[in-house]
Structure formats: structure tokens, C-alpha cells
Specification:
Blueprint (H helix, E strand, L loop, with lengths): L1 E6 L1 H7 L3 E5 L4 E2 H8 L10 E4 L2 E3 L4 E2 L4 E5 L6
Parallel strand pairs: 1-7
Antiparallel strand pairs: 1-2, 3-6, 4-5, 4-7
Length: about 80
């Protein structure tokens, strides 16, 4: 299965790239996508994830052709 992974804002800067295209076999969750794409980096606490532009939890299952996006924690005032 093919999955496009995109990184935004400070995540993109810390990883050093804006996207990956990965191949997986079997069932995989959003959290597992992060771990496979970035084995040496922990996803920051309170980061957001989306599949096909819909916010999801890290335990959401990813399907073939999906786009998974990761966003850093949002702060504001």
C-alpha cells in the first residue's frame, strides 16, 4: 500500500523535509506511519494528525492511497 506523508511548520523544519512517499504491507495506523517514517524522532506531545484532510487520532487506520499529514502543537492566545 502506498501512503503520502506530509509535515507542516516546525515539524517540517525539524525533520528536514516536507513529505515522504512510503510503501507498507498490512494494516497500519497513523501513529505507526510516523514511527516508520521517522524512527529516530518522537512525535511531539499534542501534535495533530490528519488523513485526507480530516483530523484523526493516532490509532486511526490508514488505507492505500491516503495522505497522512502531521502538524505541530498549536499555541495561541
Amino acid at each position: 500500500m502506498s501512503v503520502k506523508v506530509r509535515y507542516f511548520a516546525s515539524l517540517k523544519e525539524s525533520i528536514g523535509r516536507s513529505e515522504d512517499k512510503l510503501l507498507f504491507t498490512g494494516v497500519i495506523t497513523v501513529g505507526q506511519v510516523w514511527c516508520q517514517a521517522n524512527p529516530d524522532k518522537t512525535l511531539p506531545v499534542n501534535s495533530l494528525a490528519a488523513v485526507n484532510m480530516d483530523y484523526v487520532g493516532l490509532d486511526s487506520v490508514v488505507n492505500d492511497g491516503d495522505e497522512v499529514a502531521f502538524f505541530p502543537p498549536v499555541t495561541g492566545g
